[in-house]
């Protein structure tokens, strides 16, 4: 698969894919006789995973570290697991906080549904943070 097709299927730009290859987030691509990059289908799954790591807020330095450890093979499984566990724990805290915020918003919206008119809306300083 040529780099343009990988870009189209993955949502990453050609520029980003070249950069990722340069810094070691992508393994070196195969080159055809014309010197054009060619990737196998596995790169799409890897790019999807990298995108998820980026979405959860993992800095690029840790994504590169993870990619390097992955390339080293099974001897790094425990280190990779520990790195992912750290970010998973941070994500779980954020999800819990967002869930609590969602519950507060749902309660506030429900209170507006029962009050019937804006004139009965409580003043800001009387609103509670927790329902």
What does this protein look like?
With 131 residues, the chain is mainly alpha-helical. The protein has one domain: Multidrug-efflux Transporter Regulator, Chain: A, Domain 2 (Orthogonal Bundle), CATH 1.10.1660. The chain is 64% helix and 3% strand. It has helices at 3-10, 14-23, 42-55, 60-72, 77-115; strands at residues 30-31, 37-38. β1 and β2 form a beta hairpin. α4 crosses α5. The longest helix is centred in the last third of the chain and has 39 residues, at 77-115.
Tell me the name of the CATH class: Mainly Alpha
Which of globular, elongated, flat, extended, rod-shaped describes the shape? Answer: elongated
Tell me the major beta sheet: 2 strands, antiparallel
N-to-C span: 53 Å
Question: What is the CATH topology classification name?
Answer: Multidrug-efflux Transporter Regulator, Chain: A, Domain 2
| Approximate strand percentage | under 5%
> How many strands appear in the DSSP assignment?
2
Helix content: 55-70%
Tally the structural domains.
Answer: 1
Class inferred from helices and paired strands: mainly alpha
What does this entry show, briefly?
The protein is mainly alpha-helical and 131 residues long. Helix content is 64%, strand content 3%.
Kindly list the characteristics that best describe this protein.
131 residues; Multidrug-efflux Transporter Regulator, Chain: A, Domain 2; 5 helices; 2 strands; 64% helix
Architecture blueprint of SSEs:
Layout lengths: L2 H8 L3 H10 L6 E2 L5 E2 L3 H14 L4 H13 L4 H39 L16
Antiparallel strand pairs: 1-2
Helix pairs in contact: 4-5
Keywords: DNA-binding
Pfam family, one: MerR_1
InterPro entries: DNA-bd_dom_put_sf, MerR-type_HTH_dom, MerR_fam
């Amino acid at each position: 698969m040529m780099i343009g097709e990988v870009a189209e299927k993955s949502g990453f730009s050609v520029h980003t894919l070249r950069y990722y290859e340069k810094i070691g987030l992508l393994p070196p691509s195969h080159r055809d006789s014309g010197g054009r990059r060619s990737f196998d289908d596995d790169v799409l799954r890897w790019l999807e995973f990298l995108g998820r790591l980026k979405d959860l807020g993992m800095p690029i330095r840790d994504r590169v570290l993870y990619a390097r450890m992955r390339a080293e093979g099974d001897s790094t499984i425990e280190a990779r697991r520990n790195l992912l566990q750290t970010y998973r724990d941070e994500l779980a805290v954020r999800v819990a906080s967002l869930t609590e915020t969602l519950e507060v918003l749902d309660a506030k919206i429900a209170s507006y549904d029962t009050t019937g008119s804006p004139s009965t809306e409580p003043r800001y300083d009387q609103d509670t943070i927790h329902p």
